[in-house]
Design a protein that fits this description.
Layout: E1 19-22, E2 25-28, H1 56-59, H2 89-97, H3 100-106, E3 108-111, H4 124-133, E4 138-140, H5 155-169, E5 179-182, H6 200-206, H7 209-225, E6 230-231, H8 255-270, E7 283-287, H9 306-322, E8 327-330, E9 334-335, E10 338-339, H10 344-354, E11 360-362, H11 367-373, H12 381-391, E12 397-400, H13 404-414, H14 420-436, H15 456-467, E13 471-475, E14 488-491, H16 499-502, H17 528-536, E15 541-543, H18 556-565, E16 568-574, H19 592-604, E17 609-614, H20 624-627, E18 630-633, H21 642-649, E19 697-699, E20 703-704, E21 708-709, E22 715-723, E23 729-739, E24 751-760, E25 765-772, E26 779-780, E27 786-787, E28 791-797, E29 805-811
Parallel strand pairs: 3-4, 3-12, 4-5, 5-6, 7-8, 8-11, 14-15, 14-16, 16-17, 17-18, 21-29
Antiparallel strand pairs: 1-2, 9-10, 13-18, 19-22, 20-22, 22-25, 23-24, 23-28, 26-27, 28-29
Helix pairs in contact: 3-13, 3-14, 7-8, 7-15, 8-9, 11-12, 12-13, 15-21, 17-21, 18-19
This protein binds 2-acetamido-2-deoxy-beta-D-glucopyranose (7 copies).
Length: 814
């Protein structure tokens, strides 16, 4: 790594006494961090805030010289590696040395912005105060859109910051390393220069478990490079309400498919996190029911019958637990009338007793206080803390900015209202969590990881993930691929933007501020326009047409004239980089202005139309789905998606992705799922599992190892796919089953039982083999029995596509 003039090499002047381990015992010693010198932020004086329009480059001028490629030691990850019941003796011994105040401090998580002045410098007064007086156990990156501007740092500077916090944590108060948590949900996208990877929707659309793993691994590595040991991901929420603002973050609507992607991404995040210091603790979220909001708005109540919760919501969390996820985050607001953060049923009976989760649990942001601030389920902060600790197994409060939680709980313990043993239950899990992450051996970051952040290797991987995630949904008359010599007119605000490809949870929770815009991605991403230019080697023919909200910004007559002259037109639709309540919508309808220009081009020209849907949500296409000759669902594909999108348009590869959720036609279908009861309407715009490639792939008849399926006697289902085309095809096969009859509880239309993906060279075939067990047909009744019913079953391969094939078997109860 090259050092610039900005680098000031100063030796560490603090006296530090971190805790480390000798022969399995935790000790306090002198293991100093390897200093990570950084270019200091421009000093404007201690109390003078940075102006609104300062350039991010001035805030952190650390030069950025990532390596091309890197290799990291591999550990054996084949066995279960995750939290256990057993707490180590040294952890128990450490717990015994702590005062009540120090224990409660360990249960407290406050935001990083409390340690950064508005001048962008580290506030050591605040560090001294919180670690000395409160022994704060954890700090979180608060992805606040304005405050984040003061801390949108390179991994190098980030590590310097987290290590500085750690110097205080390990030398003050209880001298226990703090754990640093961050919303790294698609790459370490809150750290400048880290590759912003595609969002959960895109990863699910790949139907490639190795991609889910690699996505998690890169995210973990860059998070660790910045000195954070804990990532608040992945999401195991399922996409049940299409209007909900956060569906793009999760892995779609199917419990099995979602669970597989959760499982492999957890493995990627964590690896052998008890040995491998390039990984982080994952935090699966949001437990439970968050996504099924009654009106599609964020943090609204959910009413989910328990049999439905068990059937569809629980499995993906269980897969995260099977993968050894170290922590879980509870969900905002209320499920079935109970505040989740206060629910004994959800956070003790279901989570701990039924699902046997052993790891540590954190709340969502300031959620304990929401009980009195918002939900009126508690009278004040102390009452709220009491309820949560008395009723649930919550271990850590993501407090945010206040001290009420710590002060309140200390008081509750002193008054005997909360027993010290309840506190110990949580602190034990927190200390074991820290120990498992190696924090008592080495609380400081590994400076060697910094140079891997933003490496070409990760950019290439990101582009590969994007290629496998773009869903081709329509291609009449083989309008696509485009040809190099065609005059193609591109229209849409997000054609020339990296920010709109990255979406939310990049830079901040809601993307860059309007002041920063795309400048924060300069050097760390491309655009659809630059991708097209890289590929065609000529300037793109682009007119903006409408802004990101669909409002007209260009002369529409001019667009129609340009479209008439063009060989093809590509319209790109998008959405602002928002999430949570700020991204609430009240209809899936498109802005009429945006709709109208497509209609005009369709009616007033004969130029073929392609739609690129670069969106968080399935906006209703109405007649546009017939006006368009071809449609591609792009999702939110990240900073390096421009080139892969261009490659798809120009036929450099054949698409292989499938829809991870049902794309409704109209608002009234917002709650549509493909596994609706068999007699119920299922007439969406695009089905779950829809998507095809440029090659004509045909399927053989389905064969089964036996026509009879019985408990304990799995069968094998086989089908052969043939690529009749001229290009390589990465082919996704999805196996669904349908029980033709089921008494009392109507069978679902279909359920996904497995999927796989194989590479087919032109003219070749490959056989997919899936195991199918009778046990998979067990379902939850209204009385919460988990039962199996026999009868005829249809097996369908690729139900969402024209080349679907079927067979019939008989299922027996015993
Ligand atoms: C952070 O960087 C400053 C300036 O280079 C340096 O003095 C300090 O030692 C560094 N701290 C850590 C913990 O790396
Ligand atoms: C630093 O933190 C202290 C204690 O929280 C606070 O009083 C002070 O205003 C902060 N300084 C700046 C520059 O933000
Ligand atoms: C919760 O409060 C009740 C009533 O005071 C008490 O009996 C129970 O032990 C408490 N539970 C916990 C886990 O503290
Ligand atoms: C895209 O935006 C950049 C920065 O605003 C501008 O310099 C560039 O000319 C635009 N590209 C096209 C094709 O208009
Ligand atoms: C695909 O190939 C098969 C086998 O050659 C052929 O029967 C079928 O008509 C083709 N389908 C399309 C849509 O071209
Ligand atoms: C599939 O089965 C049907 C009916 O049994 C038969 O007519 C057809 O030839 C079979 N197709 C292939 C590709 O084996
Ligand atoms: C799945 O993803 C991995 C990792 O990117 C890649 O190596 C592999 O070729 C992909 N497999 C298929 C069948 O697409």
């Amino acid at each position: 790594m090259k050092l610039s003039l900005y680098h000031i090499l100063v030796s560490v002047s603090l006296v530090i006494e971190p805790i480390y381990k000798v022969n399995g015992e935790l000790k306090v010693g002198n293991k100093a961090p390897i200093p990570i010198p950084v270019a200091g932020p421009r000093k404007i004086g201690n109390t003078v805030c940075l102006p609104d329009n300062f350039l991010q480059a001035d805030l952190d001028p650390t030069p950025f010289n990532p390596v091309q490629s890197y290799s990291i030691e591999k550990f054996d990850e084949s066995k279960y590696i995750g939290p256990e019941d057993k707490i180590d003796e040294d952890v128990e011994a450490l717990l015994k040395t702590l005062t009540v105040e120090q224990k409660v401090g360990q249960m407290t998580q406050i935001t990083h912005t409390m340690f950064i002045g508005c001048d962008g410098t580290m506030n050591k007064t605040a560090m001294e105060y919180y670690f000395d007086k409160y022994s704060i156990g954890s700090v979180l990156h608060y992805a606040h859109p304005i405050k984040t501007r003061w801390s949108y740092w390179s991994a190098e500077r980030y590590a310097n910051f987290t290590n500085t916090l750690q110097e205080y944590a390990t030398s003050k108060g209880a001298k226990i390393p703090m754990i640093y948590g961050i919303d790294s949900v698609k790459g370490a996208a809150l750290i400048r220069g880290a590759v912003v990877l595609p969002t959960g929707f895109n990863i699910a659309a790949t139907f490639n478990r190795s991609i889910a793993y690699e996505w998690g691994r890169i995210t973990a590595k860059d998070t660790r490079a910045g000195g954070a040991q804990w990532a608040f991901g992945p999401l195991a929420d399922i996409n049940t309400q299409k209007q909900w603002a956060r569906n793009f973050e999760n892995f779609g609507e199917d419990p099995f498919h979602n669970g597989e992607m959760v499982h492999y991404s957890v493995k990627g995040y964590q690896g052998d996190y008890k040995k491998d210091r390039t990984r982080v603790a994952g935090c699966v979220k949001h437990f439970i029911g968050y996504s099924s909001t009654h009106n599609g708005k964020d943090q609204e109540p959910r009413y989910i019958p328990m049999n439905e919760l068990m059937e569809y919501h629980v499995p993906s969390f269980q897969r995260a637990f099977d993968a050894g996820v170290a922590s879980v985050m509870e969900a905002y607001a209320a499920t079935n009338g109970e505040d989740v953060v206060a629910s004994n049923m959800l956070l003790r009976k279901l989570l701990r007793e039924k699902m046997k989760f052993k790891g540590m649990m954190v709340t969502d942001y300031d959620e304990i206080n929401s009980q009195y601030l918002k939900h009126k389920t508690a009278k004040d902060a102390v009452d709220a803390a009491y309820i949560t600790l008395n009723q649930t197994s919550v271990d850590m409060s993501m407090v945010g900015e206040g001290k009420d939680f710590a002060d309140g709980v200390i008081d509750l313990v002193k008054k005997g209202k909360i027993s010290e043993s309840r506190i110990d239950e949580s602190v034990r899990r927190i200390l074991q969590f820290k120990k498992d992450l190696g924090m008592f051996e080495q609380p400081f970051s590994d400076p060697k990881l910094i140079e891997t952040v933003g490496s070409k290797q990760d950019i290439d991987a990101s582009r590969e993930f994007v290629r496998e995630s773009l869903v081709l949904l329509k291609n009449e008359n083989n309008i696509l691929p485009l040809k190099q010599d065609e005059n193609v007119l591109f229209i849409g605000a997000n054609v020339n933007s990296t920010s709109y490809l990255c979406g939310a949870w990049s830079f901040s929770a809601i993307g860059p501020t309007k002041i920063d815009g795309d400048t924060v991605y300069q050097g760390y991403g491309d655009t659809i326009a630059s991708g097209v230019e890289m590929l065609t080697k000529k300037p793109i023919n682009w007119i903006q047409g409408y802004d990101i909200y669909g409002n007209r910004v260009s002369d529409y007559d001019e667009i129609v004239r340009l479209a008439r002259k063009a060989d093809k037109v590509v319209f790109s639709f998008g959405e602002d980089t928002l999430t949570e309540v700020l991204a609430d919508i009240e209809t899936l309808n498109l802005n009429p202005e945006q709709y109208n220009i497509v209609e005009r081009v369709a009616k007033e020209t004969s130029t073929p139309i392609t739609l690129l849907l670069v969106q968080n949500r399935p906006y209703s296409l109405g007649k546009l789905s017939t006006y368009a000759d071809s449609i591609i669902n792009v999702g939110i594909p990240g900073a390096y998606a421009g080139l892969p999108i261009a490659e798809l348009l120009y036929g450099k590869f054949s698409p292989s992705a499938r829809m991870p959720f049902t794309y409704p036609k109209k608002d009234y279908q917002a709650a549509v799922k493909y596994y609706t009861p068999i007699w119920n309407e299922y007439k969406p715009e695009f089905a779950y599992g829809a998507g095809f490639g440029y090659n004509n792939v045909t399927y053989s008849n389905v064969t089964v190892s036996s026509n009879e399926l019985r408990p304990g006697k799995p069968i094998t289902v086989s089908v052969t796919a043939t690529n009749n085309g001229k290009m390589e095809q990465k082919e996704t096969a999805i196996m669904y089953t349908t029980q033709n009859i089921r008494h009392i509880h109507a069978p679902e239309r279909m359920r996904v039982r497995n999927f796989d993906k194989k590479i087919l060279a032109p003219g070749t075939s490959a056989t997919f083999e899936f195991k199918l067990t009778a046990e998979e047909f067990k379902f939850w009744t209204a009385e919460l029995n988990h039962i199996l019913e026999g009868g005829p079953v249809t097996i369908t391969i690729n139900a969402g596509n024209k080349n679907a094939v079927k067979t019939q078997i008989e299922l027996y109860k015993d």
